[in-house]
Amino acid sequence: MNAHPKPLSPLTSDAEAEDFVETADLSEYDLSGFTPMRFEIEPKAASLNMRLPAALLDAVKAKAKANGIPYTRYVRMLLETDVARPK
């Protein structure tokens, strides 16, 4: 790995990004600022309605905002993570 990685320049189009991924050696770049991205693909066919203490809902909304996602997606992510965890 390169001792002095290059900064990653902004990619301004899909074509530019595709070309970069096809040709670049990613080990030359500093990717330490990247965060994992999760894509929502599966359709949502069921709903859940529940009552919560206002303080708990406020805390969930604050955590979701800190993660940059809607609070309903954050709750779904928590449920998915817990269900997928081995016993």
Automatic annotation (TrEMBL):
Any GO BP annotation: regulation of DNA-templated transcription
SUPFAM superfamilies registered for this protein in UniProt: Ribbon-helix-helix
One protein family per Pfam: CopG_antitoxin
InterPro entries xref list: CopG_antitoxin, Ribbon_hlx_hlx
Name listed for the protein in its UniProt record: Predicted DNA binding protein, CopG/RHH family
Protein source organism: Paracoccus tibetensis
